[in-house]
């Protein structure tokens, strides 16, 4: 995510930090390079102009130039300005004090509205709320079936009608159903078009007139760059938006849409889609993305991801196993599954401060994790519990059963023993050095 921009900015500020004394021309040269980097990242040129002007006013001052660490001071200013550019802090979806809250999802065809609606329902369900999905896309024949399928996967009810001709009527009926069933969130999946036209906007206006939503969210593809910004601008002017959901952020190496939308439309990014899976929708935090762009990592998001996948009882159980030296292959397999469930390994590692630049260009082969699981699955229960049983003939049987080689089985066993050794050191409170278990 935004790798290209991040790499360029890190290079620019590395040169600044290398100077013990900064002159005004040094800052001007750095800002010129920042300007080029932002334009190459497809950021709106007016946004870039205002951003650079604001930076220069703050960076070329006595407080910065006379500082003992002027380079760090400039980066601090850039971070603050990026946070402002990305939308500040007030970007959460506002829920109605009198449920149900109606959230209307709008956007062009192919932007990911239906999937994003399901992702949002999942997010609220995990928070203990009772969402209802409503299929108001009557243009695309498969839209209702797609939403029903996604709702079934999440165990979230879907309101739909194959007889109703009006999306506005579907919205009204969905709200009635939500009130009758005590549902506190209604997520309305509306129709899109291949391009913006009058009939689409009129349809959305009719829905808003008959069932005014608490939030109107535009779903836009981040990888389309300035096209996504223009779409947001047009939707906002035509029907009024409360915020934007940017999909495919995991594939957006440039970042033009994310860095332009708030400044151009006045509407914040509220959520970001980080992949196709239903759990890959995240609350958007401007300060965290600004930190990641500048190579500072994003520890808070990493902690939140870990908390979602690990409950306290499981953590305590694992801790007791570690302390009693009872960590088995079964435990190793379970932990690998949980790590994979948190997202791509590259994405997780990039959240650790300082790791982004070191990992740039390094590809993590996640198929190796599948191999490790296959090898462990090919062991018997006794073998998983006691590695001392794994003699030569057993290792050959495991290799054959998992479709791997004996060398790969040996490597997994070696990694497991290194981890056991590390955990034993942890028990003794000694200094630690992580074994090489990542498949780089």
Low-confidence stretches: 429-440
Number of helices: 21
Overall average pLDDT? 81
Number of strands: 8
Shape: flat
Helix proportion: 55-70%
* Termini separation: 19 Å
CATH topology assignment of the largest domain: Rossmann fold
The major β-sheet equals: 8 strands, mixed
Please give the order of strands in the largest beta sheet: 3-2-4-1-5-6-7-8
What would you call the structural class?
A: alpha/beta
The CATH level-2 architecture of the largest domain is identified as 3-Layer(aba) Sandwich
> What string gives the helices and strands in order?
HHHHHEHEHEHEHEHEHEEHHHHHHHHHH
Determine Rg (CA atoms, Å): 26 Å
Give the class-level CATH name of the largest domain. Answer: Alpha Beta
- CATH level-4 homologous superfamily of the largest domain: P-loop containing nucleotide triphosphate hydrolases
Strand content: 5-15%
The figure for the number of domains is 3
């Amino acid at each position: 995510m935004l790798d290209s921009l991040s790499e360029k900015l890190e290079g620019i500020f590395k040169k600044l930090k290398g100077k013990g004394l900064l002159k005004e021309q040094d800052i001007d040269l750095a800002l010129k390079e920042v300007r080029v980097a932002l334009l190459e990242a497809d950021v709106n040129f007016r946004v870039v102009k205002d951003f650079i002007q604001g930076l220069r006013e703050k960076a070329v001052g006595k407080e910065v130039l006379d500082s003992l660490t002027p380079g760090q001071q400039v980066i601090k200013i850039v971070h603050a300005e990026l946070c402002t550019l990305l939308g500040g802090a007030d970007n959460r979806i506002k829920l109605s004090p009198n449920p149900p809250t109606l959230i209307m999802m709008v956007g062009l065809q192919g932007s990911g509205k239906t999937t994003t609606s399901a992702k949002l329902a999942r997010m609220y369900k995990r928070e203990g709320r009772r969402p209802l999905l409503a299929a108001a896309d009557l243009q695309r024949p498969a839209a209702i079936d797609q939403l029903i399928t996604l709702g079934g996967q999440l165990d979230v009810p879907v309101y739909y009608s194959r007889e109703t001709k009006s999306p506005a009527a579907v919205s009204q009926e969905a709200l009635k159903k939500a009130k009758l069933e005590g549902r506190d969130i209604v997520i309305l999946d509306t129709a899109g078009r291949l391009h913006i036209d009058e009939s689409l906007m009129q349809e959305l206006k009719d829905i808003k007139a008959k069932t005014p939503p608490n939030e109107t969210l535009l779903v836009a593809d981040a990888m389309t760059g300035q096209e996504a910004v223009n779409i947001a601008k047009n939707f906002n002017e035509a029907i009024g938006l409360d915020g934007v959901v940017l999909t495919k952020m995991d594939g957006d190496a440039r970042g033009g849409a994310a860095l332009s939308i708030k400044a151009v439309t006045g509407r914040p990014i509220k959520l970001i889609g980080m992949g196709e899976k239903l759990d890959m929708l995240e609350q958007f935090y401007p300060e965290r993305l600004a930190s990641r762009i500048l190579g500072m990592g994003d520890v808070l998001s990493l902690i939140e991801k870990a908390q979602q996948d690990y409950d306290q009882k499981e953590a305590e159980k694992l801790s007791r196993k570690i302390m009693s030296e009872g960590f088995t292959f079964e435990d190793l397999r379970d932990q690998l599954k949980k790590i994979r469930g948190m997202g791509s390994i590259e994405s997780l590692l990039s959240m650790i401060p300082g790791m982004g630049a070191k990992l740039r260009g390094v590809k993590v082969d996640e198929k190796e994790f599948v191999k490790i699981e296959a090898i462990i699955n090919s062991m018997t229960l006794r073998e998983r519990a006691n590695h001392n049983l794994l003699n030569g003939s057993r290792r050959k049987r495991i290799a054959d059963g998992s479709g791997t080689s004996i060398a790969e089985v040996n490597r997994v066993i070696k990694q497991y023993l290194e981890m056991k050794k590390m955990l034993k050191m942890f028990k003794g409170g000694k200094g630690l050095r992580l074994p090489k278990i990542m498949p780089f």
